[in-house]
């Protein structure tokens, strides 16, 4: 189960990315983090940009409401999504992951 935390009008959760995949998308859950494959390489912030694009599409929110709080250069990242509660985020993730 992905750990979601309500904080300051948004939700924070962990993400594990796999850059240079054949295509971008949500894969599942890994050790309490959302696992996402990214087609972009981890060069010049391309993978981070792709991650934000994938999450914006997943949550149906503008990209400016999604930020990387920690792990800019790591495969393990902490993501903040503004304007959504942990309960709303959990419903979206359950629908996507099929839990």
N-to-C span: 9 Å
CATH third-level topology: Conserved Hypothetical Protein Mth637, Chain: A
What is the string of SSEs from the N terminus onward? EEEEHEEH
Which class of secondary structure composition applies to the elements?
Answer: alpha+beta
CATH superfamily: YggU-like
The stretches of 5 or more residues where confidence is low (pLDDT under 50) are none
Assembly form of the protein: single chain
Instruction: Provide a count of the helices.
Output: 2
Q: Strand fraction band? A: 35-45%
The second-level CATH architecture is 2-Layer Sandwich
Mean pLDDT: 93
Radius of gyration from CA coordinates = 12 Å
Task: Say how many strands there are.
Answer: 6
Structure in words:
With 99 residues, this protein is of the alpha+beta class. It has one domain: YggU-like (Conserved Hypothetical Protein Mth637, Chain: A, 2-Layer Sandwich), CATH 3.30.1200.10. It is built from 2 helices and 6 strands. It has helices spanning 46-59, 86-97; strands at residues 4-7, 10-18, 25-30, 33-37, 66-70, 76-82. The mean pLDDT is 93.
């Amino acid at each position: 189960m992905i750990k979601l935390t309500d904080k300051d009008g948004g939700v924070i959760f962990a993400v594990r990315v796999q850059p240079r995949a054949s295509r971008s998308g949500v894969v599942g859950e890994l050790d309490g983090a959302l696992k996402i494959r990214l087609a972009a390489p981890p060069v010049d912030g391309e993978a981070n940009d792709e991650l934000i694009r994938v999450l914006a599409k997943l949550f149906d929110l503008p990209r400016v409401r999604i930020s990387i709080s920690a792990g800019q250069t790591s495969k393990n990242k902490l993501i903040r999504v503004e304007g959504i509660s942990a309960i709303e985020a959990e419903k979206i993730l359950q629908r996507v992951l099929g839990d």
